[in-house]
Structure formats: C-alpha cells, structure tokens
Amino acid sequence: MIIASLLMLFAQEGEEAAAGAPGGNALTPLFIVALFMLFLMLVVFPAQSRRQRREQEKLMASLKRGSKVLTNAGIVGIVVSIRDGDDEIVIRSEDSRLRIKKSVVVQILGSDEAEASKKD
C-alpha cells in the first residue's frame, strides 16, 4: 500500500519534471536510497538473523563434557556437566563452578577432558 502510493507520487513528479525543467527530478536519488533501505530491511537483515540463529543452535548442539568454552561475558571455562534437554550447563573456571545458560556460550575453544574430570 505504501509502496504503491510512493510509486504513484514518484510517477506524477517525474511527469511534471519532464514537462517543466530539463534538470530532472530532485527527489530521484532520495527515492532510490529509500527503496534500497526497504530492500535491506525486508530481505538482507532477516536472512542474517536466521543464519546467526542456525550457527548458535549448531554451537549449542556441539557442546560436550570437557569442551573449553568462552561466554559472552568473557569467562573461559571447561564444561563439567551437561544434560540433554536442559538449557543450563556447569562450567569450571579456575577454582569456581558456574551454572550458565547454553545460549551465553559464544565460542568453543577446544577440548580438555582431563580438566573436566578434576575434582574441587
């Protein structure tokens, strides 16, 4: 609806500019930029969001006991326990045990099974 009215307005102004001034329409670059922004909002940004969501789900599925992980808060730890169907994991960082959500893990740094089995 909005796009159709903008196209009609653009066509009317284009006719007036072609009949009147040889310089053309001053709003043409603005209209092209507006169409480009609309394209970005409707096509590109949702596609990026879906791709990021798939990557995060793949990362959470690959978590296992002994994985060295980095959280979005900058905490580096080793996964001590993880249960299927649960959205929380327990990590060990230095002398602390932390229970965190799987969704805060941003990167898997490697695997260290010996550290995961270490008792406090």
TrEMBL record:
This is Sec translocon accessory complex subunit YajC. Keywords: Cell membrane, Membrane, Protein transport, Translocation, Transmembrane, Transmembrane helix, Transport. One of its GO terms (biological process) is protein transport. Pfam families: YajC. One of its GO terms (cellular component) is plasma membrane. Belongs to the YajC family. It comes from the Bacteria. The keyword Membrane applies. It is a single-pass membrane protein. The chain crosses the membrane at residues 27-45. It is found in: Cell membrane.
